[in-house]
Predict the 3D structure of the following.
Amino acid sequence: MSILATKDTHVVIQGGVAGVNAAKRMAEFRYMIKQPMNVSAFVYPPDAGKTNEVICGNQTVTIPIYKTVAKATAKHPEINTSLVYVGADRCYASAKEALDDSHIQTVSMITEGLPEKDAKLLGKHARTLKKTFNGPSSIGVMSAGECRLGVIGGAFDNLVACKLYRPGSFGVITKSGGLSNEIIWICSQFADGITTAIGIGGDSYPGTDYVSYLEMFENDPQTKAVIIVGEMGGDLEEQAAEWYGAKKRRVKLLAVVSGFCQESLPKGMKFGHAGAKEGLKGEGSARAKAEAFKKAGAVVPETFGALGPAIQATYDELVKSGEVTPIPELSEAEMPALPRSVEQGMKDGDILVTPLIKSTISDDRGDEPYYQGYPASELINKGYDIAHVIGLLWDGRLISKQEAEIIRRIIILSADHGPCVSAALTTIIGACAGIGLSQSVAAGMIMIGPRFGGAVTDAGRYFKYAIDNKMSVDEFLGYMKKNIGPVPGIGHRVKSLRNPDKRVKELVGYVKSLGIPTPHLDFALEVEKVTAAKKDNLILNVDGTMAVVLVDIGFPTDSLNGFFVLSRTIGLIGHWTDQKRQGSRLIRLFNYLVNYAVPSRREVPPLK
Amino acid sequence: MAKVLEGPGMGLLKKWGLQTPNYVVVSSGDEFDQLAQANDWLQKSKLVAKAHEALGSRFKLGLVKVGLDLPGTKAAVREMLGKQVESVTIREVIVSEAIDHTDEYYASATSTREGVEVMVAKCGGIEVEANWDKVKRILVDIGEVPTEAALSGLVKDAGFSGDTASKMAEFLKKLYTCFDNEDAQYLEINPVVQNAAGDLVALDAVTLLDGDAKFRHKDWTFPFAAEFGRAYTKNEEEVMAVDAKVKGSVKLIEIPGGNIAMLPAGGGASVYYSDAVVARGGKLANYAEYSGDPPDWAVEVLTEKVCSLPGITHIIVGGAIANFTDVLKTFGGIIKAFRKAKAEGKLDNVQIWVRRGGPNEKQGLAAMKALQGEGFNIQVFDRTLPLTDIVDMALSK
């Protein structure tokens, strides 16, 4: 048995992210005690109609979110408890809404910084309705083996370490969240653990008091002793002492009170929780409270550290008198454990997962990207350039200075080609239509294909085929004519022998000046001699030149179009930002630029 | 609880219809001179000048001057401004009109668990403290307002009669309205006096408001004052500024003269740690606390301040077993500040004692323990050591 939060508790959580977090913790507890999730609903108006997903052991539980408590309890009539995780400025209304709902008997509030006036009103309202308002600033309620309300108890391993999977014999009431967990731990080490631990919150006017819970514990046969962790300030401890001393109680009472340090502090200096303040006339001091407990017959250890042995002594007495039968400990194998995540399993080395993809170029799992194992910062600091990164990421190798210079020149030569070509025009139309950068640039990119800029790979592939197969120029042209068609990389719409492409001249001149072997370039120039002789504009174009040069320095043919795509991206981004800067408006084609070769107007026949 | 200085406190009383003497709050002598030209009452009345700072026993410190004429006030204002009293510099002076009176009364309202206690006495000033039995009280239940009958019964009970009785009942009604609407926790008017016209005037007030209710009082534009008879220090103010910004909380109060620096977690445990130090005969150098899983940088700021306390010999990094405060993360902030403080020589001959549990406790404690290898004098314990035993060990050496 337990009090306040039991196996029959069904919860609605009022609040957003923090509430979902609490639900996750509560789900871990439910999994530990092998019970289904006990949070039935959330109330969070901004997300009403949606659901929250909470992992409960090895399953995901879907919990609906409602706009109001009434809607939640109408759908889930089993709800009898609300947990309030709403900000201080709005949580009075939330808690009142829950208290006013006929299904709900208990409202526990974790919110800190609730105005005192609101707390007092809520406490009174709950008392009038004969309900329980626990908090504000309450860490929650933990009933071992039965129910966890809120985040009390901490992480899963702590729940297990504190044996919260089964009830013990000690009840706990504290104002402090951290200390509730500490006492739960002490009870599990010096005795058989807790029945229920309640955080009532450290505010000046908590909605409940020690006495109401002492009454509940007194009526819970499983609870044999109660530990109160008190603080200076107010008179709730005195009331608890009075209750205990008033008549013979079934439960034993142990109490510690904090705030003795106040006696040696400058007057008026206040420590700790909001409620931990001495009265203006010195009432509510730690010493007065400790004395009151002692007088009432409670066990009052001198320090917090002495609490463990005091609990043990009480436990030993209970065992000796036969009121408590020691619970056999679980073996290591019987200990509850959360299902491990895949990550943890792999870390532990006993799960094998077949990878979905394989990457051989880069790794960003560390503190910076590594390209082929080289840290990016080190490449920068040792003078490497963007061309070297291209070499690493496209061909898996650190290219030479000379090769990097060739790539640099290719990029400069191909970066842009004016606004009229299909890719640039498309990007400009996109920019004028108000389309974003990445979409407009991508639209321009789509234009790169066999007729524009996309012939580099094919050119490289066929010239390489010729060299690999030791073809003569005639054999090659014959092969192409028979099997492929026009030779990719040969021919230009505008340029010709008489009007040569300066970019080609520049690139060929530079590469030839290096004195490196250039079999593909040489072969392509031989091919040009033959084709240009047939027709003046069948010259080696810039795509073809780039292709043979790049094949000569070892780049794989599949990567070749990438050089044009990369270079032209620079131009396309330029065109997009250019149009933006000008505030260009939507453009459309003029009618006079269209040959409307369509049938003239005619009547639509009836639909058959 | 948030203390409000006299000026804004009087402002709130006026807002709810209670009569107060005329007053001005000034921060320079020239400002006062200009106000004196603009306001008749400053030229005609006898005046009272008081340092407008959160200082106890201002009278003894010579920071209250009564029965002044205008030139005397001008001199008093200039004399007080800029004066250094302990850690506090007088930045403001409140000058108010002296009210001629014969009788002094007492009126107050206090928030209690059951509601609001409204108190009144037919004596005031220091006399009331010696005659506490003359103070009569009624309890106004939570959410209620005091009835006319209850108030007139109360003032009669306190010995008021005739016209003054009905005026005092009316005064208390307004006092309650002010208290209730302004989210006050304590409102004491002492003395209440009767002026020449027979009206009740609030001569001096102690006002404590609920700082948590600030969100619904747009006109609380005044700063809150420290409650312990001194102004906040720079370090305290900086930690408060961080506290106001973050999820969770970080808190610091400096106690000059102590040598045991405190850096514990949790509003509850931190007081037990302080108790343990005092019980062992140690002298606290501060109170500190972090809780509610604050970000690591906030804990780092708090740690820096704690390490900077003068003359410390020990730092107690205590804490219970946290529910959801991440030990590894918060310790990360502490460790960062420790390293910085050590590099600045602030931790020479300082022993650090650590005890903690909670989420990621193993990793957090291991990180703390690793500081031993960096030359820190640090002892680290886990949950198996009782909460405050590190204090016993630290102070027995």
